[in-house]
Each structure stands twice: as C-alpha cells, then as structure tokens.
Design brief:
The protein is α+β, with helices and mostly antiparallel strands. Helix content is about 35%, strand content about 25%. α7 runs antiparallel to α10 and α10 packs across α13. The N terminus and C terminus are likely disordered.
Length: about 475
C-alpha cells in the first residue's frame, strides 16, 4: 500500500461481471475523506463465480480497466500500478482464537504497543488457519473482534490501565490457490499488488456506515456470481461468508424457462422493469413466467441459503439490521421479502459511503468504495485488519502493526457519512456485452418503472412485482 506521502489511492475490484479500477486522492484537510478523480472498467472475462478460470482472459480484462483509468485520469501508468485488489473467494474459512497476557506485577500498568503485539501473537499462535494449514489456506484477514482488560470489555486497549489483557481474533482464510491466481493475474497485467481484500468485506465497507457497524449489522451483497455476507459487531467484522448464487443465475433461469439465449435473457433481466409490459409481451415474453422465475431463484437464495447461513443470528444482536446491496437488490419488493423471511429489518443501499462521480454514484460500485475505505481504515488503525505473516509470492505489501509508529496510541475515529445519488445496482451480468451496454445496469431509478400496467388493474409494473414478492414472503413466513 502506498505510504502517506503518496497522495494517490488506487483500487482494483475483480468481479464476475466487471473489473473496476478506482483512483482517488486523499483530502489533506480531512484524513478520513477521499476524492475520486477517475476510474476504469471492463467486462470480466475468464472469471466464474468470482474465481479466475482463465488467467489470460482475466489479465486482458484487468489491462483494459487499467488502460481506461489511465486514459481518464491522464496520470502516468507508473503512478497507478500499486493497487489494493478486492476479489471473491469460495470456501471461505472463519476461525476465532483467544490470546491473553499479563501486563506486570501486582500493580496495574498502562497498555503499550508492545503489550498489544504480544497478545496478538498469542492469539495468532492458536490459529490453525494461520499456522498448520499454511500450504492449503491463505489467512487473508486477522481481525481483532473483542478486547478485555481485567475481564471488562473495552474497545481499544492502548494507554488503558490493567493487569491482564485478553483478545479474540477472527481469522478469515481462502484457498491459497485462489489468492495466488489473483496476484499472478494482476502482476501479469503489469500492476503491483500492495494488498488483498475479500470482496464481501470491501462491499460491506462501501455500503454500511460506521454507526451501523458499531451497533451491529449484517451486510448482504448480491453480485453477479456470488452473494457475500459479512457480520459486524462493535465496528468489527467477525464472520465472512460467500454463497455461489447471484444475478447470473437469474439470467440462466430466464433463459431456461423462456427458451431464449443467455444474451437475450440478460437483456430481459436489465429491461424487465424499464420497458412496458406491452412491449415485452409484443416481443413474445411471458412476463408472469419471468416474474415467477426471478422470485423462485430469490426464494432459494434467501430461504435455503442466507436464512440457513444466518440461523444463529437474532435481531437483538444486529440492531442496524441487514444492509442490502448489489445489482439484484434493485428488484422491487426484494427488501420486504428478505425482511419477512429473516425477521430482521433491511436497509437497501442506493449509494456508496463515499461521494462518487457518475456513473459510479450507485450501489454497483460499493466494493470500489470499500477499497478506499479499507485504505483509510488501515492507515488510521493498523490493528483493524492484520496480516498473518504467511508468504504469498508477488504480494508486496504486508501490513505490520509493529512498524506503524505513527499510529501508536491513535484512537479510532469514525468516517463522516457522505450522501450521493443512486441510479444503478451492483455486480451482476454476463459474459457478452450487448450493443450499447456500458457496464452493468440491472435497473434504473424507481420512477422509470412507474408506467400503468396495460394488462393489470391500473397498477404499475413495480406494484405487480411487489405483490408477487409479498405473496411468496408471506407463504414462507407461515412455514416457519
């Protein structure tokens, strides 16, 4: 990661549908703020369910996004080469370990950075993912989730007094091959990887506000090939999951039930809430069947997958509820359906946490915003996301709290909320770009769909679709 002397922040978000490079500058007046000065994007090739399946195709997509960003910003390629990369990973493993150290004799002692490093090392030594499984798993994030000083919970131990310091660390790991393929791909495209970030965490950081994470929330981001889930408590991520279902599955379902090609199904998925039903029916589309196909897939995702993954979660543990983002989140009635199934309040995201220029000022780019949030978070407090010490060839940046002297004793300062306009959703999509398609566009603002339903009872298309969502949600609710 570039040091504080480097004013540029560059992130690369690798998704199933698109690859985005984001370029921003720090705002020297407000350390937690950034100013986006450019971006580049390209359709993803060689990536399935977030996993690289063709290094050559994926490299070309990265190069296209890189060239696009360089062309837009006019910044020399050399200054854009050092990037933090957000990527998806299946088979994500989570492990919580505990560490404890004494701070001195009978008298209490102020917690110093050396004490904090000692207790972290104790907890990391107890991690199977970070030690015994080094050959098969790569410990991507080690996140302190809880501290105790003499048995009392605290948020940050530095400079506080006590005799015994306890820590609980959540280790988040992915198969080593996934991480290595990402590094090899980005390096072969002429870039230098200064850090890796799991995309579910990036999306969560870019969608949820600090007060929501502190109170407790669940980030659910439905992308093109996967659905990422991150659980937050006390401002820290304590569980990360990825489900291999996303917008691409809806496209495939539409193609199957309507007997149309994948490219036609993708166009339909993008236009079904924009075009009039009369036009769609005139083109031979069975709208009712299309609606049912979309909600059948959502029912599977919400009820069979997300509900099971969150079986132990209760609303009391997550006062801020579910933060829903991603392209599919633009589906009318989807938040109500998810809320009824899980019995947890849902807030649908329309904007990233940072102010983005058009066409990035929408939920399609929460992961890009999350990379920038990760930059400033780690610089502000290097103990939020820590490194396990595992080697990964080609990864140049290995954050080390011991070397962060300028962060000693600094307190965690929440970022300022920033509001933006929303027109677009997040990552979903397909492998072939239709004519006139410039990036993923699952839908547009709500008002474009408020056309009278020529085949209904004067209701809008969005109301018709929401009624289907309500019916399915109520049916599921009665089952449980």
């Amino acid at each position: 990661m570039p040091g504080k002397s480097d004013n540029l922040l560059v992130g690369l978000s690798i998704g199933t549908t698109k690859i985005t490079m984001i370029v921003a500058e720090r705002d020297r007046r407000y350390p937690d703020s950034v100013h986006v000065i450019g971006f580049g994007k390209a359709p993803s090739r060689g990536i399935s369910k977030g996993i690289i399946v063709s290094l050559q195709d994926a490299r070309q997509s990265v190069q296209r996004a890189f060239a696009d960003a360089q062309s837009m910003t006019g910044i020399s390629p050399g200054r854009l080469r050092n990037v933090i990369v957000a990527f998806n990973g299946m088979d994500i493993k989570n492990e919580s370990t505990h560490g404890m150290v004494t701070l001195g004799g009978r008298e209490s002692k102020s917690v110093e950075e050396s004490d904090l490093n000692r207790v972290i090392e104790r907890a990391m030594a107890n991690s199977v993912l970070a030690t015994a499984s080094r050959n098969s798993m790569y410990s991507l994030h080690m996140i302190p989730t809880n501290y105790e000083l003499d048995g009392r919970p605290i948020n940050e131990p530095l400079n506080m007094n006590g005799n015994q310091l306890d820590i609980w660390i959540q280790t988040v790991a992915v198969p080593m091959t996934y991480a290595q393929d990402v590094v090899n791909c980005v390096q072969s495209a002429g870039l230098e990887v200064k850090g890796l970030l799991l995309k579910p965490i990036a999306s969560a950081l870019g969608a949820a506000y600090d007060d929501e994470m502190r109170a407790g929330c669940i980030s659910v981001c439905i992308g093109g090939g996967t659905t990422g889930i991150v659980l937050f408590r006390n401002g820290r991520a304590f569980r990360v999951m990825s489900i291999p279902i996303g917008g691409d599955h809806i496209r495939s379902d539409l193609a199957s039930v309507l007997h149309i090609s994948l490219s036609e199904a993708e166009r339909l998925k993008q236009r079904i809430f924009i075009d009039s039903e009369e036009d769609l029916r005139r083109n031979g589309i069975d709208i009712d069947l299309a609606y049912q196909a979309i909600f059948a897939r959502l029912e599977e995702l919400f009820n069979d997958q997300i509900r099971r993954a969150l079986a132990e979660c209760t609303p009391q543990h997550f006062p801020s509820g579910i933060i829903l983002s991603g392209g599919v989140s633009d589906t009318p009635g989807i938040e109500m359906m998810l809320e009824n199934i899980l019995q947890i309040p849902v807030r649908k995201v329309y904007e990233p946490v940072y102010t983005f220029p058009q066409p990035l000022a929408n939920a399609a780019y929460v992961s890009s915003a999350g990379i920038l949030k990760y930059y400033v978070t780690v610089e502000r407090d290097p103990y939020v996301f820590m490194d396990s010490g595992q080697e990964l060839p080609g990864l140049h940046y290995k954050p080390d709290p011991k070397s962060k002297d300028d962060n000693k004793g600094k307190k965690h300062i929440p970022s300022k909320k920033e509001k933006v306009e929303d027109d677009y959703p997040d990552e979903g999509g397909y492998d072939e770009e239709p004519e006139g398609y410039d990036g993923y566009d699952e839908g547009e603002s709500d008002d474009v769909n408020e056309e009278p339903d020529p085949y209904g009872e004067g209701r809008t298309k969005r109301e018709n679709f929401t009624e289907i969502a309500r019916t399915i949600a109520e049916k599921i609710k009665r089952l449980f």
